[in-house]
Amino acid sequence: MEVRVRYAPSPTGLQHIGGVRTALFNYFFARANGGKFILRVEDTDRERYSDESLQDLYDTLRWLGISWDEGPLVGGPYGPYIQSERFDLYKQYAEQLVRDGKAYNCYCSPERLEQVRLEQQMSKSEVQGYDRHCRNLGESERAALEKQGIRPVIRLKVPTEGKTTFTDVLMGDITRRNRDVSPDPVLLKSDGFPTYHLANVIDDHMMGITHIMRAQEWIPSGPLHILLYEAFGWEPPLYCHLPMVMGKDGQKLSKRHGSTSVRDFRSKGYLPEALMNYVSLVGWSYDGQREFFSKKDLEDLFSLEKINKAPGVFDYKKLDWFNGQYIRQMGDEALTDMLLPYLVDAGFLTLPLSDEAKQKMASLTPVVKERMKVLADVVELSRFLFEEPTYEDVTLFAAKGVELPVAYDALQRAYEVLKKGFADKKETQLIEEELTELAQQLGVKVNAVFMPIRVALTGSTVSLPLFDSIGLLGQDKTGARIENALAILKRGVV
Q: Considering the chain, what percentage of its residues have pLDDT values greater than 90?
């Protein structure tokens, strides 16, 4: 049997981490088993549908390097792969269920349904939902309602007795009493639009889907889907409900934890390889130890048996660490190309680059490479190269526990040391030793000498390594900034 899996999102919002993990698990499972990965667009929710969301779906999968074997834009033998283009099929199968006595036409008005809901709520009835009013209408009653021009919906006849069981790869057998299943849910709306459940089951069957990997939040729908398969006389696929993606607080991952859309992660400068690697480990583990996997590794090694039952925790700091590791593995030239858009957007550079700007980038990239968590970090890390620092808060010059006059004295004496210049690592080491000796002479920690230099050059207490910053600025600009800082400090000290 050929493995056939699908990712079937609804284009009603941007692709988020949970959805992308589902896509990745399906994709890797297909590749690991020599099967097919199908993309299907479930766009029956026309009120929330947006072209932007559909484009974001395509863009996200392409950015991650995930190609679909069948689906929109590429076609396939079971198309169309967009549900709004398959309405005639859903109508045909829904009417077949009515003819077979497995479903029926319901003529209840919205007002009547609301009244039933309110009465159930007030009486605290054990059964909540549709009261099956139209389930056993006689032929004459249906004919009279048809004459009134009422356009019916089609509802599934859910058995009122017995139980329904389906098997989940991770959770085992899951059983639910039929009386606890949603009472006779709508399959086809009066306007001809299918509900999610009808379209989903028909499409999975018609497209030959063998395994369904979806979020655990869909477990309650499992028995209903099995009842639909039974009503049609079809064999259901094998289910694997994936563990939830949680924040570190144990709650379902949401915007309150931070960015959740892949577009946000992409704009901040996360690399697709890093995001793919990390997200694949949220709820899946190869051996409990190995952390780094290439796309090819995951295509070869992924298996359902190694998916965890427990929810996966999405740790933003861990993702930052992963991304930093992948950044440091990049070649300088390729990384420079990826950093340029951020510096252009910040107004630091303009295209095409001048020879001077190219030289500056060639020097900057290997230095910032060791400090970045995301590509966007390059803006703040390199700001001092493109903008003159301001010293509105002179207390920044003084390290913790150090008085401002001491910081002024340290900067003044350090400047005399730095004036000697350093052209190689050996000279840099000698300068560093002299500055360390200066700290001892002043009776302060080394940071009390380095901090005023750092702030003078960058305007910040956090920056690239000090000597790298000096190298990037050059001797002349370094001297000019220190002199300017000394003048400002002198006014604050005197």
A: 84
